[in-house]
Design a protein that fits this description.
- The protein is built from one helix and seven strands.
- It has a single domain, classed as 2-Layer Sandwich (Phosphorylase Kinase, domain 1).
- It is mainly β and 98 residues long.
- The strands form two sheets. A five-stranded antiparallel sheet has the order 1-4-7-6-5, with helices on one face. The chain has a two-stranded antiparallel sheet with strand order 2-3.
- A hairpin with a 5-residue loop joins strand 2 and strand 3.
- It is elongated, with a radius of gyration of 18 Å.
C-alpha cells in the first residue's frame, strides 16, 4: 500500500512553509494488487473482464488486506501467462473519494 496525502504548500522566505490538506479526502490509498496464479483461463478471464468493464473510470468496492472497504478505480493492469492455462494479473487500485 502506498499513501501520499494531497497537500497544498506555500513556501516563504527563510525556509518557512505552510501546509494544508488539499480537499476533504486528502489521504487516499494506492494498492498494487497481484492475483497469482490464476489456476485456469476462466478465472483470469473473469478478473480481466471485470477490470475492462470498469474501464478505469467506474469505481468499485474493494476490501483491503487490512479489512477496510472503500471505493477504488483501476486504470492499469497487466496479465502475464505463467504456464499452460495459468496466468497472473497485476493491477493498481487507486482509492477515490466517495
Amino acid at each position: 500500500m502506498k499513501v501520499k496525502p494531497a497537500i497544498l504548500e506555500a513556501k516563504f522566505g527563510d525556509g518557512y512553509s505552510q501546509r494544508a490538506a488539499n480537499g476533504l479526502n486528502a489521504v487516499l490509498e494506492v494498492w498494487n494488487v497481484q492475483a497469482t496464479p490464476l489456476k485456469n483461463a476462466s478465472e483470469a478471464n473473469a478478473f480481466e473482464a471485470f477490470l475492462r468493464a470498469q474501464g478505469g473510470v467506474i469505481a468499485f468496492q474493494w476490501t483491503t488486506p487490512f479489512n477496510r472497504t472503500a471505493l477504488f478505480i483501476c486504470k492499469d493492469w497487466q496479465r502475464t501467462p505463467l504456464a499452460a492455462g495459468i496466468s497472473s494479473i497485476t493491477a493498481t487500485f487507486e482509492e477515490v473519494a466517495a
